[in-house]
């Protein structure tokens, strides 16, 4: 009879399984990556410690073949490898951009170049090894179906619609410039520079560029010119727990990233895009981070208005004060409960007529009375419970849609992850508010 294995053996197997899941499947032998590394080498980049790999939890990323120590250089990408507005100006598009009035924006220039190179030049493009590895589709809100966007929390839904409006406006305003490029193409430029292609290019720039300052020439509009697409470097995924230093080094003329956290051999190397909550990550990059310490649930103005009593004669004045002092934005619940800004806004809204002259003290963080403290905590609890119910309802709706709308499965999974994290935060906030309430009475 075979001897059964004990608890220690099972624990060891689970630990090994978790460890293996963090190690990626090496992709460096694949033809497209071989071509990219050759292309990078021709431009002065050589590296033996990073390998493209497929990871079970994060998808495509970069794996280190040696242990990385704190302060060690992860990557140093020469300027020749970076795709910037300087690249665009030195291309066949340069003379058209210089002549065009009013000047186009740096963002529009980069989008135009990406479309021209990927959709029109194709095989002839000098950037083909990089372009071939760019995603064909993105999951930023501008690319999602309206049915999916409708499931967003209200503040994010509003920002998503604004994002869509901005992209559409940039596309429409860029069309006269696109038409001026007809001499460069045998195809009709209307079919080359269509909205679908433009949206793809916009998402590529928005999700994959690094910050790099450029001189503001007369050939571009006054809008920010800080974009740089960084081939290979842009395979590094985000992790909110890691710390890095990233900047263009004027001495070496390379874009460099140093790890402040270190990394174990054969593990995925991460960078941090910034201390962003999941709503910001979804809006700007099209993903959410599990167990994100920066996650928060935003309380929109519409939600606040539901809880202002119509008989409060000072409600309009209170809202005006909050607006003027920038206390209607960034009101949140997070892992520590209601934010100071949210509680402060609620304390002001809960001021009674005889306390209203103390509104400045409230904004400075002073306690007005025990009654005001209790009322504001009660209101915070009501809002938190309401958002909890709304989130639970959204999750139920997502569950039903996932079985009925298979074509939306990946989009719905994304929103489900966001809403699930929101629910955890709200449930924790309810417990924290109950504790605060018991210590205030």
TrEMBL record:
Its main location: cytoplasm. GO terms for biological process: inflammatory response; methylation; positive regulation of inflammatory response; positive regulation of interleukin-6 production; positive regulation of tumor necrosis factor production; regulation of cell proliferation in bone marrow. Pfam families: Rubis-subs-bind, SET. One of its GO terms (cellular component) is nucleus. It is found in: Cytoplasm, Cytosol; Nucleus. It is an enzyme of class 2 (transferase). Residues 48-274 form the SET domain. Keywords: Cytoplasm, Inflammatory response, Methyltransferase, Nucleus, S-adenosyl-L-methionine, Transferase. It catalyses: L-lysyl(20)-[histone H4] + S-adenosyl-L-methionine = N(6)-methyl-L-lysyl(20)-[histone H4] + S-adenosyl-L-homocysteine + H(+); N(6)-methyl-L-lysyl(20)-[histone H4] + S-adenosyl-L-methionine = N(6),N(6)-dimethyl-L-lysyl(20)-[histone H4] + S-adenosyl-L-homocysteine + H(+); N(6),N(6)-dimethyl-L-lysyl(20)-[histone H4] + S-adenosyl-L-methionine = N(6),N(6),N(6)-trimethyl-L-lysyl(20)-[histone H4] + S-adenosyl-L-homocysteine + H(+); L-lysyl(4)-[histone H3] + S-adenosyl-L-methionine = N(6)-methyl-L-lysyl(4)-[histone H3] + S-adenosyl-L-homocysteine + H(+). Its EC number is 2.1.1.364. GO terms for molecular function: histone H3K4 monomethyltransferase activity; histone H4K20 methyltransferase activity. Belongs to the class V-like SAM-binding methyltransferase superfamily. SETD4 family. Forms a ternary complex with TBK1 and ZNF268; the interaction with TBK1 is ZNF268-dependent and leads to TBK1 monomethylation. This is SET domain-containing protein 4. It comes from Podarcis muralis (Wall lizard). The gene is SETD4.
């Amino acid at each position: 009879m075979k001897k059964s294995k004990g608890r220690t053996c099972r624990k060891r197997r689970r630990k090994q399984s978790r460890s293996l899941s963090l190690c990626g499947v090496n992709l460096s032998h694949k033809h497209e990556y071989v071509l990219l590394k050759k292309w990078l080498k021709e431009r002065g980049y050589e590296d033996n410690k990073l390998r493209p790999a497929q990871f079970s939890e994060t998808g495509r990323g970069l794996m280190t073949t040696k242990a990385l120590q704190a302060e060690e250089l992860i990557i140093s990408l020469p300027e020749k490898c970076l795709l910037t507005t300087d690249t665009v100006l030195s291309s066949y598009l340069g003379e058209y951009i210089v002549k065009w009035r009013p000047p186009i924006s740096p963002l529009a220039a980069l989008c135009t170049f990406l479309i021209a190179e990927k959709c029109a030049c194709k095989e002839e493009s000098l950037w083909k090894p990089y372009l071939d590895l760019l995603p064909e589709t993105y999951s930023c809100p501008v690319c999602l179906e309206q049915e999916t966007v409708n499931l967003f929390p209200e503040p994010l839904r509003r920002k998503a619609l604004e994002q869509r409006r901005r992209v559409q406006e940039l596309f429409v305003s860029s069309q006269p410039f696109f038409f001026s490029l007809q001499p460069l193409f045998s195809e009709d430029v209307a079919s080359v520079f269509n909205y679908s292609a433009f949206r793809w290019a916009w998402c590529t720039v928005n999700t994959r560029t690094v910050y790099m300052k450029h001189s503001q020439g007369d050939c571009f509009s006054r809008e920010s010119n800080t974009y740089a697409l960084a081939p290979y470097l842009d395979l590094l995924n985000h992790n909110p727990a890691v710390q890095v230093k990233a900047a263009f080094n004027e001495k070496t003329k390379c874009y460099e990233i140093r790890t402040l956290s270190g990394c174990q051999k054969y593990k995925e190397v991460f960078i941090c895009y910034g201390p962003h909550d999941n709503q910001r990550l979804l809006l700007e990059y099209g993903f959410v981070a599990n167990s994100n310490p920066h996650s928060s649930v935003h309380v929109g103005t519409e939600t606040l208005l539901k809880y202002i009593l119509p008989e409060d004669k000072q409600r309009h004045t209170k809202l005006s004060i909050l607006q003027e002092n920038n206390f209607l934005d960034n009101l949140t619940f997070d892992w520590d409960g209601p934010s100071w800004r949210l509680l402060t806004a609620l304390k002001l809204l809960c001021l009674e007529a005889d306390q209203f002259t103390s509104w400045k003290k409230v904004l400075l963080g002073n306690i007005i009375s025990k009654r005001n403290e209790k009322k504001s905590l009660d209101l915070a609890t009501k809002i938190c419970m309401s958002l909890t119910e709304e989130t639970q309802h959204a999750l139920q709706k997502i569950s039903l849609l996932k079985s009925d709308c298979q074509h939306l499965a990946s989009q719905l999974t994304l929103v489900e992850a966001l809403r699930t994290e929101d629910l955890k935060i709200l449930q924790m906030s309810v417990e924290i508010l109950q504790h605060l309430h018991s210590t205030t009475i």
